[in-house]
Amino acid sequence: MSTTVKLALYQLAHSRAGDKGNTSNISVIAWDAECYALLVEQMTEARVAQWFGYRHPKNVARYLLPKLEAMNFVLEGILDGGVNDALNLDTHGKGLSFWMLDMPIDVPQALAARLAVKEYV
Amino acid sequence: MSKTKTDKPLYVGCATGFSGDRTDGAGPVVDTLIALGGGVLNFETLAERTLALAQIEKRKNPQMGYEPLLDDLVGPVLQRCLEHNIQIVSNFGAANPQAAAQRIFALARMQGLRVPRIAVVHGDDLTQPEQLKFLLKKLGTDIDPSRVVSANAYIGAVEIAQALNDGADVVVTGRVSDPSLTLGPAIAHFGWAMDDWHKMGCGTMAGHMLECGTQVSGGYYCVPGQKPVPDMHRIGFPIAEIRADGSFSVFKADNTGGRVDDRTGREQILYEVHDPAKYLTPDVTADITQVTIASEGADRIRIDGVTGHTRPAELKVNVCYDNGYLAEAEISYAGFQARERAALAGETVRKRIGHLLPLRIDLIGAISIFGDDAGELIRQGLPESRDVRLRVAGVHLQKEIAEKILRDVTSLYCCGPAGGGGVRTSLRPRLDTLSCTIPREAVPCGYSFAQEQLP
């Protein structure tokens, strides 16, 4: 039985959120190829839709960019209306990349040991 | 007066990423461009709602309605740009590009400079009555045309390129697609054909990397202890070196803070992108599915593998309209049971006025940014917090109903839970947006050289 530990996504990737209307796009950029492979396997559209479930996304699409070791998630209808229409504070949803970065990922112990948070200079 | 085409690289710097960005970024960019032998200076200043706010200013004063910080942006660098073959290309014309052009004439006059050749791009504004009628029908809305504040098409790079070919020192636009501010100069410089989709894609993505200012050069990137960025207080704005084959590199102004590497580059190239095979602009359908980003030396990256496909048939239009009043009010609770007291204060307001209008309730310091309008996340449980600020927000067409939010939060001073303090309230006109696409033929665009109107 292979042993894994749960790590937050921010230990495997970095992220930035952008907005157009009521749709948010959230990039997930792996720190390396091994992290990328793991994230492609675990961060399915269904899993991300569930993670943002309390915001009731109308659709979640995932686009893979293997040459950048990155994914782009497009979440429709999660911005409470969008930049001009929402009542929330962060109408752009700029902070939502940090909600994504808290997602737990199952990581093999050997990789986890290597990923203890460090500065990526 | 067409310029000679060249295979030498084109340098384009961008000194703002939005209206409200730092205004001291242009100096180091211009100095770097001078050292490189000239180039183009972009200022990107038009976010989605900026144009509507500019229209409101223009209504109050027909001489206003352009970027309010224009003097601070252009004033300090106009002389160096005019003397060193650096063309300024910007959407800082906002709702009134002609007035912006007159202001730049005045700045040149005040500084004793030669009279600049200023081109003004027109066609994006669609607020003529017959245009509005067409747009509202297309949008399928029954809002009264009198409530429309702004209606603008996102137009492309063609007019910018033509104006530069005809010798413009400055090109002032209203709403254009942000990357077109960079693509236009590249078309003029290299003589690229407008249906060379590969090159259109490349120039567009170079513009995309620049359009948010420092977001590619270390801004909006730093996480202390994980993703360090040096000297954020003097972060450098970006410059692209665009080559004749369409490949390009991005670096930052000399002698500045910040960071440009394959990490900052990856975050920015995906920013506000949906399907990476179809990044839609008026000029092209750009495709970054095969893109690579590699560091090439300190604070410099090289981008390859961009391409493009046929441009979209229609242009995107944003219509902004008056939609009542946005009321926001806040009060803070700290110490023992702060979270519970703030939550009770919110429920108290909801019981009093929740039947009059939908309320958004945030508990800043516990759950606010991650929260949702329906309060689902808050109901899943609140984290411990001893310093919580209640925020109540709502919108209503009638001012006196919206104002009830301000009054009821203020009354929590006496009538609410123990120890509430620091009430702040604001009431602002609310602007909402509708979007659609329309045929290009419905958006006749062009440009003309502005004539200086002496006072």
Descriptive labels:
heterodimer, A: 121 residues, alpha+beta, top7, de novo designed protein, two-stranded antiparallel ribbon, 4 helices, 6 strands, 33% strand, B: 455 residues, Alpha-Beta Plaits, 5-stranded antiparallel β-sheet, 14 helices
* Beta strands of chain A, count: 6
What quaternary form is this? heterodimer
The CA-CA distance between the termini of chain A, in Å, is: 35 Å
Strands of the widest sheet of chain A, in order across it, are 2-3-5-4
Largest sheet of chain B: 10 strands, mixed
Low-confidence stretches of chain B: none
CATH architecture of chain A: 2-Layer Sandwich
**Physical arrangement of strands within the biggest beta sheet of chain B:** 11-12-8-7-1-2-3-6-4-18
What proportion of the residues of chain A is helical, as a percent range?
10-25%
Number of domains of chain A: 1
CATH level 3 topology of chain A: top7, de novo designed protein
Tell me the total number of β-strands of chain B. Answer: 18
Shape of chain B: globular
Mean residue pLDDT of chain A = 93
What are the low-pLDDT stretches of chain A, counting only 5+ consecutive residues below 50?
Answer: none
Structural class of chain B: alpha+beta
CATH class of chain A: Alpha Beta
Task: For the record, give the distance between the C-alpha atoms at the N and C termini of chain B, rounded to a whole number.
Answer: 30 Å
The computed structural class of chain A is: alpha+beta
Biggest contact? A-B, 40 and 54 residues
Describe the structure.
The complex is a heterodimer of chains A (121) and B (455). Chain A has 121 residues and is α+β, with helices and mostly antiparallel strands. Chain A has helices at 33-42, 45-51, 96-100, 109-114; strands spanning 4-8, 13-20, 23-30, 59-65, 70-76, 104-108. Chain A has one domain: 2-Layer Sandwich (top7, de novo designed protein). Chain A is built from four helices and six strands, in the order βββααββαβα. Chain B has 14 helices and 18 strands. The radius of gyration of chain B is 24 Å and the shape is globular. Chain B has a ten-stranded mixed β-sheet, sandwiched between helices. In chain B, strands 5, 14, 15, 16 and 17 form a five-stranded antiparallel β-sheet that branches. Chain B has a three-stranded antiparallel β-sheet with strand order 9-10-13. In chain B, helix 7 crosses helix 8 (180-190), helix 8 (180-190) crosses helix 9 and helix 11 runs antiparallel to helix 13. The model of chain B has no long low-confidence stretch (mean pLDDT 96). Chain B has helices at 26-35, 50-60, 70-74, 78-83, 97-110, 129-139, 158-165, 180-190, 197-210, 262-269, 338-353, 376-379, 399-410, 412-415; strands at 10-14, 39-43, 86-90, 118-122, 148-153, 170-172, 238-242, 248-252, 279-280, 285-287, 292-295, 300-304, 307-309, 314-334, 360-364, 387-396, 421-439, 446-449. Chain B is an alpha+beta fold and 455 residues long. Chain B has two domains: 10-143 and 152-312, no CATH class; 319-435, BMC (bacterial microcompartment) domain (Alpha-Beta Plaits, 2-Layer Sandwich), CATH 3.30.70. Chains A and B meet through strand 2, strand 3, strand 4 and strand 5 of A and helix 10, strand 15, strand 16 and strand 17 of B.
